[in-house]
Structures are given as structure tokens and as C-alpha cells.
Design brief:
Blueprint: E1 2-3, H1 8-18, E2 21-22, E3 35-36, H2 47-52, E4 57-59, H3 71-77, E5 81-83, H4 85-88, H5 91-100, H6 105-129, H7 133-151
Parallel strand pairs: 1-2, 3-4, 4-5
């Protein structure tokens, strides 16, 4: 495992505590690895960084990982599987939503288990529709929003 952090002391702590290797933040995307996981900083995937990737997949929890339009297509063309950020980082929202109804760790963990299934559904939709995983995630999200929006159209009978 290789890590990078904008706070050098944090990277040093990971090296010390976990025996990992640290590299400079501006070089982490080019490390030969199975999965590149951008976390905390958005815009990590630009046309330049994508051309330097040496990984099979990108799966990180940073918001807005794609620096500009078309980066999803560049990832697909490079043969890199992209797990869209808002699919894989949904855990925070799932956990926070539990606080609104009286926190239950069991319910939160059940909700967290659905993230895998939702992400796999995005991959399947991308394959079936011949689109990028980012486009498939957008379509899935839009379909869910539409479905929930229609609930407002359902009115109980007037009395």
C-alpha cells in the first residue's frame, strides 16, 4: 500500500503505524497499483493524471474526482474501471440519515451493505447500455429521484 497526504505528518504517521510507503501527493496517481483511491481532494482525475494511471480501477471517497467533462470517457478508453464517487462514498449519508430517526448501528450497517449492490448495478448498467460508469450512475440517480418525486403526486382521496 502506498499513501500520500497534503499533511506530511499524516503520511509519516501512516508509514510508522502501518508500514506503508509514502509518495508525494502530486505523484500518487502514477503509482503502480490495483486500485487508486482518491480521498478528500476533488479533481484528482484530469486528462493528464488519467494518462499516467497505472491501476485497474479507481474507487475513492473524494467528491468530484473527475476534474472536467470527458474524464469518465478517458478512464473507460484507458481500460480503468471507475467507481463513481457518489456511489462509493454514500456511507456518510447513510450513517447520518440514521441519526434523524434515532441512531441504530444495525440499520446503518444494513444500509451500508447496499452500497456494494448499488455500485454493481451501476457497472451492469454501464455494460448493458454501452456507456461510462459515471453516465450510468447519473442515470441510476436520476431514475431514483424521478421515482421519489412521483410520490409527491400521489394524494390520498379527498374527504
Amino acid at each position: 500500500m502506498t499513501v500520500a497526504d497534503v499533511v506530511p505528518a499524516a503520511a509519516e504517521r501512516a508509514v510508522h503505524d502501518f508500514g506503508v510507503e509514502a509518495v508525494a501527493v502530486e505523484k500518487i496517481h502514477a503509482v503502480d497499483c490495483d486500485v487508486y483511491s482518491p480521498c478528500a481532494l476533488g479533481g484528482a482525475l484530469s486528462f493528464q493524471t488519467i494518462s499516467e494511471l497505472r491501476c485497474a480501477a479507481v474507487c475513492g471517497c473524494a467528491n468530484n474526482q473527475l476534474a472536467e467533462a470527458g474524464c469518465d470517457e478517458a478512464l473507460a478508453e484507458a481500460g480503468v474501471l471507475y467507481a463513481p464517487d457518489y456511489c462509493v462514498n454514500a456511507g456518510g449519508i447513510v450513517n447520518i440519515s440514521e441519526e434523524l430517526r434515532g441512531y441504530s448501528r444495525e440499520r446503518a450497517e444494513t444500509g451500508l451493505r447496499h452500497i456494494y449492490d448499488a455500485t454493481m448495478a451501476v457497472f451492469a448498467r454501464a455494460r448493458a447500455d454501452g456507456i461510462t460508469t459515471a453516465a450510468a450512475a447519473d442515470r441510476q440517480a436520476e431514475a431514483r429521484i424521478d421515482a421519489v418525486g412521483r410520490l409527491n403526486l400521489i394524494r390520498p382521496p379527498s374527504r
